[in-house]
Specification:
The strands form 6 sheets. The protein has a 5-stranded mixed β-sheet with strand order 1-5-4-3-2. Helix 2 packs antiparallel against helix 3 (70-88) and helix 10 (331-339) crosses helix 11 (341-349). The protein is built from 14 helices and 27 strands. The chain is 20% helix and 25% strand. The chain is α+β, with helices and mostly antiparallel strands.
Length: 591
């Protein structure tokens, strides 16, 4: 840093990081050690080199914790002479036309080594195309804060594909100043193949491409969630970063809007009827309705529940939840037009259920199907949609192309994708996902309990109030010299608006209210389908008086439902409906 301060930028070509090859600190332990030396067209370069070489020798000794022996001194002298030869050679420091291109003046690094450089102790390296970059010292200056750490030890490209402001000449130039090497051609080829590769063969041969930022919980069927800290960036979750919940292979649907038919089966007033309606008719005949609604998987935050006691299911973090703008025709409008007002009234007055079936099919040829009570699905105030757009674009394949059910305020499993049949029946769906899954067992029952399923509750419909902390990340370090901004989300099923979020910095001993950020202030209390984002700013003076923060959050909805403090009373072997207080512990860095 001191050498860079002394440099006159006018005398410099593009700055270059020259690797000091492996220093053999002892015959027992070989450690790869790279020292950055800034090279310029300046007569003081040899003085700078001597300082850097001395620093390298000292650092190597410190890393080993032992004094250098004669072999180490000889090795250091040999490497010093090699680098002197490189400095004295005629190196042309030309600017790279495009960042990430192969550079012959830099070493080749293996992905295995890069993946290990993912924290401050080891140094933080990242990849952009063929380029390898050491961003350890840059992190404190990064305008986006700690989000850059999401790419630690891996590629920065998926993040730049989301945050496209990085594709700028100034950013490219800054990036190349941090360049330390090239990704090996073998690893670059392997990463490129992995990016384009479909998931498996057979029923999973034609899976869609997914965004590489998603944290994969299972490949077949594909289930994934975004990094939690990205959820607080925007009120509406980008479609490509919306959590993906598939129970079966994603179907390949090739019919056009005229050809694609949705079946409607009805048995009302002892009269069995079957109808068909095309997707084109659905779009053109019925009023277009748009709403912003949150979907949440019943297993959201399951990984936290498993820390109390082992559970069965995908290890979802706190990001199996997302909010989007959905556009389509209201189910009540379509069914009233087809069946008539009298039959719709009869449905609402009786114990009817609306079954939704998708085109995703298992090896036993069973379609994914679930149901909701007609009192929910056909309530004019519940805004149930037959949706064909998400965030103002046609549904993607992972999110239900070409049409899906959106039932606001109800568990995500009932919002059936790839919709091909709607059935009005006197009983709920008899499918596995309605009868054997998405039902909660009490905490004293597990899968070793004889006849355990007789203890199961009803099929989950509306979800309980919940909240989570998105930033800071668990076990992270926060700077005591700066204010800390805590961010999170809160949501309650059934359309119940969030009225307050309380945050504690001392494990629940004391509380303070967070600032609530809503996407639609006009939503009435009983139709608040979207989550509430929240923030709390902690003054840096508070941070300087402690070593750690044990942050907790709890939300209160319009019915004054609140979250339980502990997971233990709500534990269940399937890991469903974890809505205990959100918890994050962080350490305070005073330096």
């Amino acid at each position: 840093k001191e050498n860079r301060r002394r440099m006159n930028p006018r005398n410099l070509h593009i700055m270059k990081l020259v690797p000091l090859a492996a220093l053999q600190c002892s015959t027992q332990l070989k450690r790869r050690f790279i020292v950055g030396v800034t090279i310029g067209a300046n007569e003081k370069v040899n003085d700078w080199w001597r300082e850097a070489a001395a620093l390298a020798a000292i650092t190597a000794a410190l890393c080993q914790g032992i004094a250098q022996n004669e072999e180490e001194r000889q090795s250091s002298e040999m490497k010093e002479n090699e680098v002197r030869k490189e400095i004295n050679s005629d190196i042309k420091n030309e600017a790279v036309e495009r960042p990430g291109e192969y550079r012959s003046d830099l070493p080749v690094l293996k992905l295995e080594e890069i993946e290990k450089r993912n924290n401050k102790e080891t140094g933080i390296w990242m990849i952009y195309q063929r380029g390898v970059y050491d961003v350890t010292e840059f992190i404190a200056q990064h305008p986006g804060g700690s989000k850059i750490l999401l790419a630690a030890g891996g590629s920065i490209e998926p993040y730049w594909n989301v945050f496209k402001a990085h594709h700028d000449d100034t950013v490219y130039e800054m990036l190349e100043h941090l360049r330390i090497g090239n990704l090996s051609i073998e690893d670059a080829t392997s990463l490129a193949k992995a990016k384009k590769m479909h998931q498996g063969q057979g029923p999973y041969e034609h899976e869609p491409e997914r965004h590489p930022l998603l944290k994969v919980n299972s490949q077949q069927p594909f289930n994934a969630e975004p990094p939690p800290e990205l959820l607080s960036a925007t009120f509406e979750t980008p479609s490509e970063l919306f959590f993906v919940r598939n129970h079966l292979p994603v179907p390949v649907i090739e019919q056009n809007e005229e050809e694609y038919q949705i079946e409607i089966w009805s048995c009302v007033q002892s009269i069995e009827e079957k109808y068909q309606i095309s997707l084109a008719t659905l779009k053109n005949k019925y009023p277009q309705h748009t709403l912003t609604a949150t979907l949440q998987c019943a297993g959201n935050r399951r990984s936290e529940m498993s820390e109390t006691k082992s559970v069965k299911g995908l290890s979802w973090s706190k990001a199996a939840i997302g909010t989007a703008t959905w556009t389509g025709a209201r189910l009540i409008d379509v069914l009233t037009d087809i069946l008539g007002q009298d039959k719709i009234k009869a449905l609402n007055d009786s114990e009817f259920h609306v079954r939704f079936r998708g085109l995703d099919v298992g090896p036993d040829n069973e379609h994914y199907e679930t149901s909701v009570p007609a009192s929910i699905a056909l309530d004019i105030h519940r805004d149930t949609l037959l949706a064909y757009e998400m965030n103002k674009k046609p549904l993607s394949r992972d999110h239900g192309f070409p049409i899906r059910a959106i039932i606001p305020g109800v568990v995500g499993a009932r919002n059936v994708k790839f919709l091909d049949r709607i059935t009005l029946a006197t009983t709920e769906s008899q499918s596995f996902w309605q009868q054997k899954d998405y039902r909660v067992l009490p905490p004293n029952v597990d899968y070793q309990t004889p006849d355990f399923f007789r203890h199961a509750g009803p099929a989950i419909q509306e979800l309980p109030v919940t909240s989570a902390i998105l930033e800071p990340a668990p076990a992270s370090f926060v700077n005591a010299q700066e204010d800390l901004l805590i961010k999170g989300y809160a949501w309650s099923g059934g359309g119940r608006k969030i009225v307050r979020v309380d945050v504690s910095l001392d494990a629940g001993l004391s509380w303070q209210p967070a600032e609530l950020i809503r996407g639609d202030e006009q939503q009435p209390d009983h139709r608040a389908w979207a989550w509430t984002l929240w923030e709390l700013c902690v003054d840096h003076n508070t941070l300087q008086s402690t070593e750690k923060l044990d942050i907790r959050c709890k939300a209160i909805d319009a019915a004054y439902n609140s979250q339980p403090e502990d997971i233990r009373p709500i534990w269940n072997p399937r890991g469903l409906l974890n809505n205990a207080w959100g918890r994050v512990q962080v350490s305070i860095s005073k330096s």
